[in-house]
Amino acid sequence: MNLNRINRRQFLHRSTALASAALLPPSLLHAAEVAAKRTATDQVALGRTGLKISRLGFGAGSNSGNVQRNLGQETFNKLIRYAHERGITYIDCAQSYKTFEWVGDAIKGLPREKVFLQSKIGGKPEDVLATIDKHRKVYNTDYIDSVLIHCMVKNGWTDEWKRIMDGFDEAKSRKWIRAKGVSCHSLPALQTAAASNWTEVHLVRINPQGHVVDTPEQKWNATSDATRVGPVMTEIKKMHANGHGVIGMKIIGNGDFTNAEDREKSIRFAMSQPEIHAVVIGFKSTAEIDEAIERINRALAAA
C-alpha cells in the first residue's frame, strides 16, 4: 500500500512538471535546453580558484613546442585565433617551449578578459619575481592567469622548492599571477602535490590507456600502462576534494594516439570524470581543433 502511494506521488509530481513545461513559451524551453547542454568551449570553474577556463585548452608545447614552432609564427597565430573564435580561451605554454616568445603576438588584440593564459617555470631561477615578470613582458600582459612549477618528479618536492613557491606567493600578492600550481611527471610528485595546501592548480597526465601517465618511478619518462591510471585518478580525486583546479594533459597520448578509436576512448574517459575540470591538447591544424571539439561535445552529450 505504501509503495502504491509513493508511486502515485511520483506520478503526480512528474505529470505536474511536464504540464508546467508545456506551458512555457518555446523561447524559454529552448533556453532551458541550451543551459543543460555541456560543450567543449564552456567556461568552467577551475576548482575554488575563483577563475573560469574553457573546458578545452590549446596546448602550445607539443614535443616542447617544436611541433607548433615548425608551423611558422604566422600559421601559429592563425591557429590560436581560429581556436579562440570557436570558444577556446585557455592557452597553455611554458618558458621552455619553443613557442614561448610567440604567444604574446598570437593573442595581440584579443580581449584580455577572454583569454586564460597558463604558463610554467622550470628549474630554480635565482630571481623568481624577475622570471615571472619576464613572462608578463613576453606575453605582453599585466598578469598571467595561472603559473605552474614545471615537471616535478621527486617525492616531497615542496621542501626543496619552497623558495620558488614563496616567490610565486609574492607574485600573486602583487597581482602578477592569479593562481599558482604545478605540473607533475611521477606518481610520488603527484601525491606530494595533492597533499599540499599551497597548490591551487594541477596539470596532470591522464588517459585511460595509461600512455605516458605518472608512475611510481621518480623520472618523467618512465614506461607506463593502463595499470597506472587508477593511482593517478586517486590523486586527482584528492585534488578535487581539496578544492584544487584539475587540468588533464596527454589526452591524446603525447600525440601518439594516431588511431581515432584511441582518441575517442581517451576523450570519453576524461569527460566522464567530474574531478577533471578541463583538458589541454596540443594542436597543429584547424582539423585537429574541430575534431577535438566534436569529440568532446559528443562525449559530454553521452555522459
Explain how this protein is built.
The structure is a single chain. The chain is an alpha/beta fold. The chain folds into 2 domains: 36 residues; 263 residues, TIM Barrel, CATH 3.20.20. 44% of the residues lie in helices and 17% in strands. The chain contains 12 helices and 10 strands. Strands 3-4-5-6-7-8-9-10 form an 8-stranded parallel beta barrel, surrounded by 6 helices. Strands 1-2 form a two-stranded antiparallel sheet. Helix 10 links the parallel strand 8 and strand 9. Helix 9 runs parallel beside helix 10 and helix 11 crosses helix 12. The longest helix is centred in the first third of the chain and has 22 residues. The chain is globular.
CATH superfamily heading of the largest domain: NADP-dependent oxidoreductase domain
Helical content stands at 40-55%
In the CATH hierarchy, the third-tier topology of the largest domain is known as TIM Barrel
Helical segment tally? 12
Beta strand count? 10
CATH class of the largest domain: Alpha Beta
Largest sheet: 8 strands, parallel, barrel
Query: What general outline do the C-alpha atoms trace?
Result: globular
Any idea what the radius of gyration is?
21 Å
Element-level helix/strand string: HHEEEHHEHEHEHHEHEHEHEH
N-end to C-end Cα span: 36 Å
Element layout with pairings:
Blueprint: H1 2-23, H2 26-36, E1 43-45, E2 52-54, E3 56-59, H3 66-69, H4 73-85, E4 90-92, H5 103-106, E5 116-121, H6 128-139, E6 144-152, H7 157-160, H8 162-173, E7 177-184, H9 187-195, E8 201-205, H10 229-241, E9 245-249, H11 260-271, E10 278-282, H12 286-302
Parallel strand pairs: 3-4, 3-10, 4-5, 5-6, 6-7, 7-8, 8-9, 9-10
Antiparallel strand pairs: 1-2
Helix pairs in contact: 9-10, 11-12
